[in-house]
Design a protein that fits this description.
By secondary structure, the protein is mainly α. The protein has helices spanning about 1-10, 20-40, 45-65.
Length: about 70
């Protein structure tokens, strides 16, 4: 994969060019936006609520239980 991207950058005359940092950064931000949109629309609301309840109960258990690390 790295060799392929290096070849593409060389064909576009972007080797040793500071614009590469901006271009590659823009692509990664775009991918994060697409991934976020996918996960926010594909997970049902009931499953999200169940996850929130499980995390809340787990945190409550750890906060209310005596820790063996405390002096």
């Amino acid at each position: 994969f790295h060799v392929l991207s290096k070849a593409i950058l060389k064909k576009l005359h972007l080797v040793d060019n500071p614009a590469v940092i901006i271009i590659l950064g823009a692509f990664s931000v775009y991918n994060m936006i697409i991934a976020r949109a996918f996960f926010t629309t594909s997970i049902p609301l009931e499953l999200q609520e169940a996850g929130l309840l499980m995390v809340a109960t787990t945190i409550a258990v750890f906060q209310n239980s005596p820790s063996s690390f405390q002096a």
